[in-house]
Amino acid sequence: MREYLLVLFCTAAVTYLLTGPVRKFAIAAGAMPPVRARDVHREPTPRLGGIAMFGGLCAGILVASQLDNLSKVFSQGTDIRALLSGAGIMFLLGVLDDKWGVDALVKLGGQMIAAGVMVWQGVTVITLPVPGVGPVAVSPTQGMVISVVLVVVMVNAVNFIDGLDGLAGGMVCIAAMAFFLYSYRLWYGYTISDAAPAVLFSVLLIGMCLGFLAHNMHPARIFMGDSGSMMLGLMLAVAAISITGRVDPDLISNETGSQTAAVHALVPIYIPLLLPLTVIALPLADLLLAVVRRTWAGQSPFAADKRHLHHRLLQVGHSHSRAVLIMYFWAALIAFGSVAFSVTNTGRTVVLTLAGLCLVGLVVLLTPRFRPRAPRAVQSFVPPRYRRQQNGPMAELSAKDKQLLGEAGRDSGVGSTAVGHRGEATGRH
Rounded to 5 degrees, what angle do the CA atoms 352, 353, 356 make? Predict the structure, then answer.
């Protein structure tokens, strides 16, 4: 665990330190497109944040290659090399799109090329564990198709939710944390060495997201752009593919004592594609809804609009920060709920807990205009919208305005009192 923490810290630190210089470079390079009609930010903001994230990825891999235990991952397979090549292609494609713009079909072709390069290097689905049947072998062609489709779907799902400050980075970070728990338990709990690459990929993802989120939370100083969002989606897909078909249920049965106990204890493991899909359930649902909505309207599935899930949260009255936190909540609920159900012996407890949390989430979702007020003792430490407002006609005035009115009142003999009486008189009419 200490080696994983070291890799996470180094990845996050390098990403954080590189983001500032990358922001200046993006401004100098003109990677600051004007605000579009579908955007929610008000001022042009530089992109190319994926450059810093790619730098953090390379730094994390370099550190991992020098550690005693993690260095074995590099010698036992080609997953790391395949990840770097695929992420590099996706990163370059995203940089071109952030600076000059790339046609949607060209971008889709580039995504398929990146996935194909990784498949060629061995990152592909070999078998599919089917409940009641067991591992079902797939042909090389079928495995290639499944792998490419999974990469393209995850890349575009993450890209679709990159519409609010900190949204895509935070949701991918939550997904990576859930997937880390999932793969770490396989690796160290059941000594399944084939899960080791997925553990490392998850740690790298967490570090990249945490390092970048420090600059990307609302109000964002820089956007990750397609160079970052597509790379994050690809890494999530690689983590899923690298472990799919490599989990032997017999190994789990030997640890738990029976096949029934193994299936009950590790439901997501018995269908390894389940958890990767649950951790991006919201982005995936948004992607599917967008494709159906645009196709039904006779538009291209890649045509941009302002009707994504996060846009709808803003339209019903939620603030920017609250909309992001709501998306975080539901993503964490689905992802960690799946992990909890796979590791507990009492599924009823998990179901009841999830039901209670769903109720809380629905209450928050349906009360967009509710503004909790902080106690007076901590009001100086919270955002202004959570501070208690004063009563009276002077409550809406700022401190500077009140000072100017006070000075005017001393000079003319009237001032704020006269303003207050005028406000009362106006209110009566």
Answer: 85
